[in-house]
Design a protein that fits this description.
The protein has one domain. The chain has five helices and two strands; from the N terminus they run αααααββ. The protein is mainly alpha-helical.
Length: 100
């Protein structure tokens, strides 16, 4: 998940922006503040103002509601960045070089 520093300050509640659990909770707080779960589309749009993003996330959620085992397929789904297939386990951020 990605947060602007100002958004993290508002929804991070003192957590670690690099910690997955803290980021998920912050995203939940942001979505709730923007209408979720009653108006999930508006809440998603507030997080990422792209109608394509809202449609994509809503479609994934619909698949998971219909079949929870779909998560396994999405979890192991290979990712392309442009025309490059990222290797499995590609790190979210580059490794810090060793000192020296």
């Amino acid at each position: 998940m990605q947060f602007l520093p100002s958004t993290w300050q508002r929804y991070g509640h003192g957590g670690d922006i690099q910690a997955t659990g803290d980021a998920i909770l912050a995203a939940a707080r942001l979505l709730a503040a923007n209408g979720a779960p009653a108006d999930m589309a508006a809440a998603l749009y507030a997080y990422n103002p792209s109608r394509r993003y809202v449609r994509a996330v809503s479609a994934y959620a619909g698949q998971l509601r219909a079949n929870q085992r779909a998560f396994l397929g999405y979890y192991h789904w290979q990712v392309f960045y442009g025309d490059t297939l990222l290797p499995e386990g590609y790190p979210a951020r580059p490794a810090t070089p060793a000192p020296g």
